């Protein structure tokens, strides 16, 4: 029982490639982003398309390892591999790249990637509520805006930004609505499908169309839920996934969980809910750049220190989605999430009183059977 | 009632028949086909006990080969089977450490035998039976002799965790004229430390229950006790703890249906 609209999403990635190539032919501009800290509003306000670039597949990792250390997060290697092999049409289409100083691996990789295409790196404060952090991040917003204006020879007006903020908030709201369908028990959609649809949306060139697609899917799934349709049985353990970003090609843990009988209902990671939890303040009396800075600075990514926000978000989602267990996924060599796992374990087990499991893996299939044992044992633990 | 637990590990296959409260068991090497090993060992034990296959009420499979077994009623992970078996053999819960041929695990169980949390070693072989096998081969001794050779010796420091590097470390120690038995003691300590490094996060626990093939090595048991600072118990049937746990699950499930 799969939502009909999923078929559209399945084809979307290829379709989007054509759309973006056409857009390029028409002289439209494209900016590629890697991370949820990228303020897409400024890109849109500059009259350009913003696309999320690929970094969730295993294929280009080997090529990346020619330049990068082997013992590095697969997300970084995959992103870089796509960039140097020319296999990602979105990367090829991008006129400019924007990145942030998040984790060490990424920021050093960006230095190498910056040799391939013009890249702007935003200097992210490492602590959201430290003194001066907001001012500094607002400054970075201005720097990025000025860079876009200069590169594209355009003028970004306040009005453009306000319009883009409204649009992006609408997109966030649509995605929030889609995420919320899994609150039904049992969930009417698989975690894999939810992930694929949210992830594919990132490649959508036309924001309005993308919002409509997400809303249509949400409406269809809501209707399925109302009819009591679900791919799961009522007793399928409900799982919250937290940790590193997951996308198409790197969904193996989600797949394993669902193959083993669980239903992944909540994605706390930044490929899921993390970046949606907070909208940009639309208050017309507020400085737009500060409004943007506030939103993005408060994303509870593990590269922030401390990162209390992640605990709060996990707690909130665990409750709202009535989960039975938390799985914390760390990509190999991601130090920030890996170290944070200790705090998350403690919080989930002692404060939320929920079973917790931490997994560390990469994009390869080499450990699938070992992971399967862990996943199954975890589900047995939940089911008692 | 008769129920069966079949534990197909990477090295050996263990089958337990629970005939009312009596435990019958058989251990055979797994060889190259987990499927055949599971099936043959099961039928061999049935024949020994004089029990017809149709008289077995329920069969639970576990271990890495559990998915390939065609004749079982249900597969349960080794984590839960080991916990269940260990708790049955020892009682009172505790921290179960199972070192098998290919992997090692630490499982925290409560007084009722319920699994609270668990962890397993990562991809590499450090701290597993395989590590010991490679080292024994490098030293030209049989794995079964290791414990006696190491008893009462001065453990030499083995620094490498990686099996390949540890092997060359052992060879260079030999070349330098170090005593084989001190090297073996060092290898044992390194296994115990490695495993304890993984398991210690579950402390405090009253006792450690040591199961799996490596638990038969009394010297590793002593080293582990040194690390743990709590009693380490090796139940008599430790080697079949997983299969026993599976048979106990089978009994519970048979009673339900
Ligand atoms: S985890 Fe952090 S650094 Fe990585 S993509 Fe998400 S927000 Fe960016
Ligand atoms: S998963 Fe971790 S190491 Fe990889 S890019 Fe994100 S923050 Fe960096």
UniProtKB/TrEMBL annotation, chain B:
CDD domains, alphabetized: ASKHA_NBD_BcrAD_BadFG_HgdC_HadI
ATPase BadF/BadG/BcrA/BcrD type domain location: 5-250
EC number: 1.3.7.8
Pfam families: BcrAD_BadFG (PF01869)
Enzymatic class: oxidoreductase
Gene3D superfamilies: 3.30.420.40
A molecular function GO annotation: benzoyl-CoA reductase activity
Keywords: Iron, Iron-sulfur, Metal-binding, Oxidoreductase
Keyword Electron transport: no
Cofactor(s) listed in the protein's UniProt record: [4Fe-4S] cluster
InterPro entries: ATPase_BadF, ATPase_NBD, CoA_E_activase_dom, Dehydratase_Activator_Redct
Name assigned to this protein: CoA-substrate-specific enzyme activase
Species whose genome carries this gene: Desulfotomaculum nigrificans (strain DSM 14880 / VKM B-2319 / CO-1-SRB)
Organism phylogeny: Bacteria, Bacillati, Bacillota, Clostridia, Eubacteriales
């Amino acid at each position: 029982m799969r939502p009909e609209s999923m078929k559209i999403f399945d084809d979307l990635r290829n379709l989007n490639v054509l759309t973006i190539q056409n857009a390029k032919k028409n002289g439209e501009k494209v900016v590629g982003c890697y991370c949820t800290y990228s303020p897409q509003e400024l890109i849109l306000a500059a009259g350009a398309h913003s696309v999320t670039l690929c970094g969730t597949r295993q294929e280009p990792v080997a090529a990346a390892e020619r330049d990068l250390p082997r013992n590095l997060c697969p997300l970084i290697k995959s992103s870089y591999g796509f960039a140097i092999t020319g296999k990602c049409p979105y990367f090829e289409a991008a006129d400019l790249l924007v990145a942030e100083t998040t984790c060490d691996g990424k920021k050093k990789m960006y230095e190498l990637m910056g040799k391939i295409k013009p890249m702007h790196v935003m200097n992210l404060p490492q602590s959201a509520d430290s003194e001066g952090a907001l001012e500094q991040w607002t400054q970075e917003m201005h720097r990025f805006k000025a860079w876009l204006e200069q590169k594209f020879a355009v003028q970004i007006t306040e009005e453009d930004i306000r319009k883009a903020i409204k649009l992006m908030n609408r997109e966030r709201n649509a995605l929030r609505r889609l995420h919320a369908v899994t609150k039904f028990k049992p969930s009417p959609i698989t975690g894999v499908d939810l992930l694929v649809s949210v992830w594919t949306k990132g490649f959508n060139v036309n924001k309005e169309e993308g919002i409509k697609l997400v809303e249509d899917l949400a409406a269809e799934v809501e209707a399925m839920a109302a009819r009591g349709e679900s791919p799961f049985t009522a007793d399928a353990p409900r799982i919250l996934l937290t940790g590193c970003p997951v996308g198409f090609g790197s969904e193996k843990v989600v797949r394993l969980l669902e193959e083993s009988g669980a239903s992944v209902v909540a994605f706390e990671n930044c490929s899921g809910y993390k970046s949606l939890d907070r909208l940009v303040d639309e208050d017309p009396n507020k400085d737009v750049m500060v409004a943007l800075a506030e939103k993005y600075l408060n994303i509870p990514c593990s590269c922030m220190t401390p990162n209390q926000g992640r605990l709060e978000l996990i707690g909130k989602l665990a409750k709202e989605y009535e989960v039975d267990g938390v799985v914390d996924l760390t990509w190999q060599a991601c130090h920030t999430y890996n170290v944070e796992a200790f705090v998350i374990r403690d919080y989930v087990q002692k404060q939320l009183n929920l079973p917790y499991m931490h997994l560390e893996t990469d994009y390869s299939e080499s450990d699938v059977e070992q992971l399967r044992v862990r996943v199954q044992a975890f589900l047995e633990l939940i089911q008692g | 009632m008769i129920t069966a637990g079949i534990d197909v590990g990477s090295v050996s296959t263990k089958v337990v028949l629970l005939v009312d409260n009596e435990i019958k068991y058989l251990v055979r090497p797994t060889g190259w086909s987990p499927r055949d090993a599971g099936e043959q060992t099961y039928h061999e034990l049935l024949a020994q006990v004089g029990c017809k296959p149709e008289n077995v009420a329920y069969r639970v499979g576990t271990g890495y080969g559990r998915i390939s077994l065609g004749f079982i009623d249900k597969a349960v992970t080794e984590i839960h089977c080991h916990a269940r078996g260990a708790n049955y053999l020892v009682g009172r819960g505790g921290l179960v450490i199972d070192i098998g041929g290919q992997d090692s695990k630490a499982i925290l169980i409560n007084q009722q035998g319920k699994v609270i949390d668990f962890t397993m070693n990562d991809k590499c072989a450090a701290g597993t039976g395989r590590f010991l096998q490679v080292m024994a081969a490098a030293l030209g001794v049989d794995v079964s002799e290791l414990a006696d050779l190491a008893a009462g010796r001065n453990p030499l420091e083995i620094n490498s965790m990686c099996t390949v590097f540890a092997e060359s470390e052992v060879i260079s120690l030999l070349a330098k004229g170090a005593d084989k038995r001190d090297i073996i003691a060092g290898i044992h300590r390194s296994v115990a430390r490695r495993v304890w490094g993984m398991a210690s996060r579950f402390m405090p626990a009253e006792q450690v229950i040591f199961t799996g093939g490596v638990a038969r090595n009394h010297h590793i048991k002593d080293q582990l006790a040194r690390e743990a600072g709590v009693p380490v118990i090796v139940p008599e049937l430790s080697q079949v703890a997983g299969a026993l746990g599976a048979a106990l699950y089978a009994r519970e499930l048979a009673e339900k249906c």
